[in-house]
Write a structure and sequence with these properties.
Helices cover 27% and strands 10% of the residues. The protein is α+β, with helices and mostly antiparallel strands and 78 residues long. The chain has one domain (6-73). The chain has a three-stranded mixed β-sheet with strand order 1-2-3, with helices on one face. The longest helix has 12 residues, at 44-55.
């Protein structure tokens, strides 16, 4: 069984036939972390609030905190 790295997954999403507005490649961790993802959140709890934002939910998150979703500019990508 071949393991797929996050970089492989993000690369596959970028090269897929999916409309770009329907692809949300997100990485979790420090903003200095270099990745092919288009978006970045600081903590795993931010994933829940980000999904709520994408879903149009009026709830910030399960923890009551606002999501820290950041668009990663093209220069910071691998």
């Amino acid at each position: 069984m071949k393991l797929i790295s996050p970089a492989d997954m993000f690369r596959s999403l970028q090269n897929s036939s999916l409309p770009p507005e329907n692809v949300f490649a997100v990485t979790v961790g420090a903003s200095s972390k270099k990745t092919l993802a288009s978006w970045h959140v600081l903590e795993p709890a931010d994933v829940i609030s980000t999904i709520a934002l994408l879903n149009g939910s009026n709830k910030s998150s399960a923890t009551g905190q606002d999501s820290q979703l950041e668009d990663i500019d093209a220069e910071s990508k691998m």
